[in-house]
Amino acid sequence: MIKFRISVNFMLLKIFYYEKQDFAYHKYALRIDVY
Length: 35
Prior knowledge:
The protein is mainly α and 35 residues long. Helices cover 94% and strands 0% of the residues.
């Protein structure tokens, strides 16, 4: 159970990190489009 919880938390952290990275990339692309 603890192993499963740790693995789920790690997966959520990875998803959150990739979403943050994607958001930053979109902000950068939007900035490139604006300029």
